[in-house]
Amino acid sequence: MVADSRIVEAAQQMDQRFWDYNSIIRDRLITTEDQWAAVREPIEASRLAFINAARRHLVGIEEPVRSLVARPSLAEQQRRHAVITSAKNVRAGLPAHPD
Questions:
Q1: What is the DSSP string of 38-97?
Q2: Calpha distance 49→32 (Å, rounded)
Q3: pLDDT tens digit string along 9-61?
């Protein structure tokens, strides 16, 4: 890679995160949303750091990008899932919130 050493370092950090979690993802060792969030967050953080390093050192943009994804938070995803499950239960004639 031909770039400022800070960009190369950020790219290497991003690659390291992918390698850190590759076998966990490949071997399907993630069984919960919380586990997936724990794996996803460092990968996304390193990707964001790389993008900001490139913006800063290639084009001189000092203001960092704060987020790359439009994905709702894990809590919001869980809330949406509960609402959808409740609606499906009602349609199926089941209690909205099974105990």
A1: HHHHHHHHHHHHHHHHHHHHHS---SPP--S--PPPHHHHHHHHHHHHHHHHHHTTS-SS
A2: 26
A3: 999 999 999 999 998 888 988 888 788 888 888 999 999 999 999 999 989 99
